[in-house]
Design brief:
Blueprint (H helix, E strand, L loop, with lengths): L2 H12 L3 H24 L4 H10 L2 E3 H4 L8 H13 L4 E4 L8 E3 L1 H8 L5
Antiparallel strand pairs: 1-3, 2-3
Length: about 120
């Protein structure tokens, strides 16, 4: 975990306004990920996809396809693959047969839990 992230997580317990600092960090993180996501996917759906990931950071890959505002299933899978190869998403469980792959926005999950989980 980077030093600035440790400082923010530690400040949750020490400073009454730490929730404000954490929300500031998440806003910064979302903006940074949005820029990276746009450059990786080159898609108009990059920001809506990232919004979904911040809403539900652990998800089955097939659940994104078919939702309102999302592109076709092949395009969603292509964008998720690019984000996974870039290290933004991590595989929690590989897909097998009819069972979908489970992915996670690991940095957000770890920040929320206050420790490394994924």
């Amino acid at each position: 975990m980077c030093d600035s992230l440790k400082l923010i997580v530690t400040s949750l317990y020490l400073i009454p306004s730490a929730a404000f600092l954490t929300s500031q960090f998440l806003s910064y993180r979302r903006e940074r990920d949005s820029t990276i996501c746009n450059s990786l996917t080159r898609s108009q759906f990059a920001v809506p996809l990232l919004d979904r990931l911040f809403t539900q950071p652990i998800f089955q890959s097939t659940h994104l396809a078919g939702q309102k505002g999302m592109p076709s299933k092949p395009m969603v899978m292509q964008m998720l693959g690019r984000l996974r190869r870039a290290g933004i998403l991590r595989v929690v469980r590989e897909g097998s047969g009819r069972r979908a792959q489970v992915l996670a926005l690991a940095e957000l999950v770890n920040l929320s839990e206050g420790r490394k989980i994924i």
